[in-house]
Design brief:
There is one protein chain. By secondary structure, the chain is α/β, with parallel strands linked by helices. The chain has a 5-stranded parallel β-sheet, with helices on both faces. α4 links the parallel β4 and β5. α1 packs across α5. It starts with 7 loop residues before the first strand and ends with a helix.
Length: 125
Amino acid sequence: MHPDAAVRVLLVEDQRDLRELLKSGLERRGIQVLACGEAGEARTGLKSSPDIDAVVTDATLREVDDGLDLAREIHETQPDMPVVVVSGSRDVIARAKGVASAVLEKPITAGKLASVLESVTGGIH
């Protein structure tokens, strides 16, 4: 990340209202957000936007290939990419700890997420 650039985050959340709420809240805090609703879109976003600084994904997306699978894949292929996993299930949270830079339990706020992103990316500029 360039020291004068804003943090760029790929946000993966299948619930449209929550995705838009988090996106607007992060953007108000100076974070650039590429938002998508499924893991396939996220993979495309990562390939087409090489300047992504971190990924935030819901652990349980409404598709066969869920957010936890996406987090594992990113952890294996891009080990330096911070991944924040969000879930409402304590069981899923426990399973995410080995592949995520941080794990948040729902419900979450944009402020809490911004704080975690600052921590895993080394700061928001």
